[in-house]
Amino acid sequence: MKETRTGLCMYCGMACQLNYVFENGRLARVRPLRTDPVSRGAPCIKGLTLHEVVGKGRLKRPLVRRSPWRPPREASWQEALGLLADWLRDADPHEVMVIASGKTSNEDVYSLVKLARGVIGTPNVDNCCGRLCHAPTITVLKDIYGIPASPGYFDDILSLDLLLLAGTNPASNYPVMFNRIIAAKRRGNLKLITVDAVRSETSQYSDYPLIVRPGSELAVFNYFARSIIEHGAYDDEAESLPGFREYARAVAPFTLELTARISGVSEQLLRSASLALIESRARGVANGMGLTQHSNSVETLYALYDLSLLMSAKVVTGRGEVNVQGAGDMGASPDSLPTGGMETFSELSRLWGLPVEPVRGVTMSEAFFHEPMGVYLISSMNPAHSMPATDIVARRLENSFAVQMDSYYNETSEHATLILPTPLLVERDGTVTSGERRVRSIGSPLAPPPGTRREWIIAAALARLIGAGDKFDYDSTWDITREITRVVPAYRQVDAEKLMRGEDQWASKSIRWKRFRPPVFKGLDEARSPGYPWILTSFRSSHHFLSNEATSKSETLSKFPERPGLYMSREDMECLGLADGDLVRICTRHACKELRVYSSHKLPRGVLGAYWHFREVEFNRLVPLRFETVTMTPQYKNIPARLEREGRVLRPCEESGRKG
Ligand SMILES: Nc1nc2c(c(=O)[nH]1)N[C@H]1C(S)=C(S)[C@@H](COP(=O)(O)OP(=O)(O)OC[C@H]3O[C@@H](n4cnc5c(=O)[nH]c(N)nc54)[C@H](O)[C@@H]3O)O[C@H]1N2
Ligand SMILES: Nc1nc2c(c(=O)[nH]1)N[C@H]1C(S)=C(S)[C@@H](COP(=O)(O)OP(=O)(O)OC[C@H]3O[C@@H](n4cnc5c(=O)[nH]c(N)nc54)[C@H](O)[C@@H]3O)O[C@H]1N2
Ligand code: SF4
Ligand SMILES: [Mo]
Description:
Layout: E1 2-8, E2 17-23, E3 26-32, H1 45-48, E4 63-64, E5 73-74, H2 77-90, E6 96-100, H3 106-120, E7 125-127, H4 128-145, E8 162-166, H5 170-173, H6 175-186, E9 191-196, E10 208-211, H7 217-230, H8 236-239, H9 244-251, H10 256-263, H11 267-279, E11 283-287, H12 289-292, H13 297-310, E12 314-315, H14 324-329, H15 345-352, H16 364-369, E13 375-379, H17 383-386, H18 390-398, E14 401-406, E15 418-421, E16 431-433, E17 438-441, H19 455-466, H20 477-487, H21 496-500, E18 505-506, E19 534-539, H22 555-558, E20 566-568, H23 570-576, E21 582-587, E22 592-599, E23 607-611, E24 639-645, E25 648-650, H24 653-656
Parallel strand pairs: 6-7, 6-13, 8-9, 8-11, 9-10, 11-12, 13-14, 14-15, 19-23, 20-22
Antiparallel strand pairs: 1-2, 2-3, 4-5, 4-15, 16-17, 17-18, 19-24, 21-22, 21-24, 24-25
Bound molecules: ligand MGD (2 copies), iron/sulfur cluster and molybdenum atom.
């Protein structure tokens, strides 16, 4: 007996629809869905190998750990939730941190936000992918365009003649977006400018592959803007926008010579890229982690999005996890509410029938590193792998009542007090909002494993135990969807009934204003120093997803050759007399670690890189506590590092010109 069900993929923010093929009741294959407007019938290999992943190594019973050094024991749901409710009742609300996830549905995130702000009474609510990846992008888009999302559509790419991709690698990370780039190139019109610190799968297709000194991107964008203004290659509208004069003044000092010196890119390449921009008519812009995960990222992003405004460019930035856009929209952020800014608190309070304080909470970065909490309630996130300084994260989890809601036993589970098994995204109904604010029904292609409970069910049970159960009186996930369309302004235009029938909807894409905010150049965010002469950065593989819990379970994906080690340029390897597989010791200002080193054509001289997915690499144990100060997004890129081998310090050859 064969049956096919349609449902979403659970990985990236493109949110493709797939065909799940069952044979005799068992998921046998995942196939493309030809009619899906997002994948256009060509999803990527991660989606197509989901059948190798979903059933394996799952948590099925709640686990309770009595002391940090003991293994956890199984518990009933009643015991687990009773214990948690007791802790929540006794805790100072401001010492509770709730972390929602972009790997769950809008309805699950919304319920956790309602539980946090309305029932527990804590403003400390955040979401994993939002904080650690695109919080700086959203801050800047809100300021410049008045919208906390990408105003463009992925299909806009098809009609561009120039696309500026800065610190993002869609060929690996958003494959179906990249398919649009290739389609537009095949038609012959699209030129690509990439601005990266390493060569990526995407930059190989670039017409102008700029490899910049990490953290120097602001200078490049300002130079482009200066050239465009000099040539008058912008729409008249730009001149009439607020801040134009100040912007023109701010970019004026970025001459070709100065920019080449700051960025390390040749004058010739900079000039030809800027000419391409000047000559193009339909321009687009997107950025990724190569820009956001720096301590100076907000200023750099002002430079990029001011440039987008000047060029009347379409903004087509992809958004990380499958539902990270939705998680932010649902108010899983310490400085906003589901109804909007803090000033909307009384409206939210009225709609919920629950007290809501107009208080800004702390981000999860602050909650782990600056203002430790008594209780952490963590949904589908693995902070002991994905946050910086993971040794400190582990200690925080051990010294608190740390509750993890997750599908797998991962590094965070090693330190959690309570582990609650949840279904994967593809085992849920309800909705997600993709990177272009397309709201889609998940379609529940698979049934949740017995013993698991999703976040909204957990939130409702806790609310009942704490005494606000009537406010969580939902019969189904779709009751919450309907509530969302009443409460969240950007979703008022969304029709929950149409979503239920599987029709896509759009959350608001309206640009509310356009204004320049001149960027301030404060120098590189981190520079090499004699003690730390290398730059270390992290990037992603197209075959692994985040901390690799799910993707490592696929036989097909595991066959690809990415290695859990440290990558270095061939030139540096040769010059230092290193061979593939040699052990080296890498130290940052936070920690040291022994790793095997491999040569890679991706890395320029003096830069080291690693896939941070792999558990063995423990990349984030090396990442020091350095954050962008407005958004508290960690600096995972551009980390000064020292390299040693057998007690000898190895220096990049470009610096010393001789063997270490
Ligand atoms: N060095 C370095 N660190 C980084 C980054 C970087 O570029 N470099 N990037 C940062 C970014 S952008 C992000 S978003 C964070 C992510 O960091 P996390 O949000 O911690 O992501 P995961 O590591 O996938 O951990 C989440 C857990 O979700 C669980 N899970 C539950 N349901 C699902 C599901 O339906 N699908 C999947 N795939 N997993 C599920 C899995 O058990 C997994 O262990 O990491 C950040 N950390
Ligand atoms: N296969 C796969 N797909 C994914 C994910 C995954 O883990 N695996 N994760 C999803 C998530 S949560 C996110 S947020 C997105 C992230 O997707 P991207 O935004 O593309 O993030 P990264 O791959 O971390 O970094 C992108 C590129 O930035 C460049 N880079 C590195 N350091 C620097 C720097 O200092 N300056 C500049 N200019 N460039 C630099 C490198 O070329 C790198 O390839 O991908 C999503 N899609
Ligand atoms: S990982 Fe992203 S691009 Fe690949 S199938 Fe899933 S949603 Fe589509
Ligand atoms: Mo992310």
